[in-house]
Automatic annotation (TrEMBL), chain A:
Keyword Signal in record: yes
Organism whose genome encodes this protein: Micromonospora qiuiae
Signal peptide (residue range): 1-27
Keyword line: Signal, Transport
PANTHER family: PERIPLASMIC BINDING COMPONENT OF ABC TRANSPORTER (PTHR30290), PERIPLASMIC OLIGOPEPTIDE-BINDING PROTEIN-RELATED (PTHR30290:SF10)
SUPFAM superfamilies, A to Z: Periplasmic binding protein-like II
Gene3D superfamilies xrefs: Dipeptide-binding Protein, Domain 3, Periplasmic binding protein-like II
Domain called Solute-binding protein family: residue spans: 85-447
Keyword Signal: yes
Protein name: ABC transporter substrate-binding protein
Pfam families tied to this protein: SBP_bac_5
Amino acid sequence: MSVSPRRLRAGAFALATLAIISTTACTAGGSGGNANGGGATTLTVNTSFVLKTLDPGRVYEATGLTAVHALYDTLLTFEGSDVSKPVPALAESYEASADAKTFTFKLRSGVTFSDGSPLTADDVVFSLNRLKNIKGSPAVTVSELSVSKTDDNTVVVTSETANPNVPVVLSMPSTAVINANVARENGAKDGEDAAQGDTAQQYLDTNSIGSGPYVLKSYEPESQVVLEANPNYWGEAPQFERVVLRNMDVQTQKLTMQRAEAAEISLDISGKLLEGLPETLQTSGVQDTVYFLFLNADPAVSPVTSNPKFNQALRAAIDYQGVAALYGQGAAPGAGLVAPAFPGTLPEGEASTRDVNKAKALLAEANLTNPTVKFNYPAITYKGVDLGTVATKVQGDVAEAGITLELNPQPLTTFLDEMRGGKVALGFTPQSLNYPVADSLINNMAPGQATALRSGWTVERADPAIVAAGEKVVETLDLAARATAMQEWQRLMNQSSPYVVLASNSSTVVATADLTGADYTAAGWQVDVAAVGRK
Amino acid sequence: MTMIAPDPVAPDPKVERALTRRRWLGRLRGGSAGQPIWRQPIAVAALVILGGWLLLAIFAPLIAPYDPLAQSPEAYAPPSATHWFGTDSLGRDILSRVIHGARLSIPLALAIVSLALLVGGLLGLVAGYLGRFVDEALMRLTDLVFAFPQIILAMAVTAAFGPNTRNAVLALVIVSWPVYARVIRSAVLSMRGDDYLSAARLLGVGPIRALRRDVLPNSIGPAIVLATLELGNAVLLLAALSFLGLGPRPPAAEWGSMVALGSQDLSMWWVSVFPGLAILTVVMAFNVLGDALRDRLDPRYAKGR
């Protein structure tokens, strides 16, 4: 049988028409959460998916955390965008011992899972033990904790070392309480051998077995995740009956939000991309990411960057205000390593300032004429900011002081490999925290710690005052005093550490005008979809 | 053996072909195929555009209003009287960067094409002249390179060696030499049995001298035409590599990386449109010129064939 060209053309035209019609239909269906005529109300959340699993014991990626927070409950939680103090959730109250090693949680009564069965202390113990023992990415936060129950309504969590931030850890989505019986039936294990024996991930990716305000309706990690209101929810029912998390790149998110009418949220439009959005949209952002340079302190790697005078000169040569301007609205010149969203941050007034003459004088003192350094950075766009643009700005700034930086953009994996190898003379990287407490900075970036050693910063090469200040933070158990100690530590770090903080930048939730409670939180789950309502 | 006194009315066609072949340059001025180049308005326009770009490239520091690397607080300024093409995210003048970009793209394209012509041409000559095992081996090597999409192979090479200008050029030479090898080899094959080659060999001319004196001049014509056509392709491939972050290191003003910078936020259209137009004009001009040259030099492709 032969097909005439005319028939082919007609067929192609018909196909094209069909494609256009179906695309229009999809678009209308996707953003038509409000046009429901008495049906279920839908909230659409657009985000560029970073999603590997919805298993609370393994979830570590941004999109997964947003979903898991809506599907499961934790002992404590954070409300709105306030991450300074955990509030009760499954636990109606808790007590901490004076040595910050023992924490006793009193469970709320009458809480049921989405299948109607009651939530008990056994479920809490099982969930936390499983998180610790399957040794997934989030397990590091609980590696020093052990959990036991004293009765059906009381759980005791003990820490090997004094840790006043255990309540914060137990607010993180990965510490969510799952239905132990259903989990066991589907291959979940909580024993010491759970790392090998646990096979529940596949089940938990497609089913939710929690007590949260939503249940999982469908999971398509490449395109969308659909949540539906939990009919057996113990708390106040969420206003939206359906939540659709849609995978969408950031440029498309911007276009979508420019046209969105109601019940729509975007999570990735930040920085310069916020410019040009309609005035009617609301934005909520918190500065929770810092961007810093790291210089190698090992003379064997670089005699230039390890020179303390060069370190000072580089700090003085950078135009911090100009760098912050590159990030667009919601950014600020960096004051310290702790981002403004978290307790212990330095006030913005303490941000470093530029002094090119001082930089030149320091270089002359050190007898460095036209020092040349290779400058590594990952060739990526992070939270709406192209790191290459920032690196080029830094290069232009320090060139005025007589420092030559050879820009070396790298694929992310190459950059990370070289950084871990500890041979990078000068690098540039963003940093976000795993959970909203800055202690991990001391554990990683103080002299002699893992991250510091990648910059060749051993205890011997560090100012003893910095070592002492870091120890003081860890020893201080009162949270307010700890935050003050953290500020002192940062001030010293700004004098002579290998880290030069450039700027802090916001993550932003953009929402249509009809919504309430669409607040960005630095707690990890970005936005609490269950708290989003309508005016 | 050929006749000692050929018939003057009907000359031996083989002899005539051998004699006319070396006249390929003469065809530029007219003669066998179509109009001379300067009678074709499109080809003239292409020549003018390329000439303009060459002048811009040579006199860039005199013509460009600003230093292409100088940053200013005036970021994302739209096109205006002070910045004709606007400024980019770091407040650099796009007009100056586009002009200086010509200093990278055009010489690098020339370098890529001449190196590829050199490598491919030598291998093609050797393969065609020696034949047998050498021919087989070299031609399977070209097949191997042809088996990969050009840009993917070039990306793999630059990623392996590390992204910078030298490696980008190297990668593009590696992916583009086989076309020349094939063209030259086929030209050599078509003349292998020709009498003047046999005669030269009988006179005791060695293979290297024969290649240089007889084979090369007679087979280079089609390769030169191909090279002109490939210049546009080289500009495009280089821009593509650098768009992907595998070209010259930043902050160098390179058209491909400038388009990439602008593509981050298309609402600032001028950041990517002007370097994009630069690429477009240069590539189109090279292609039009290459086509016109081919029509002139290779009668098989002439219009109305």
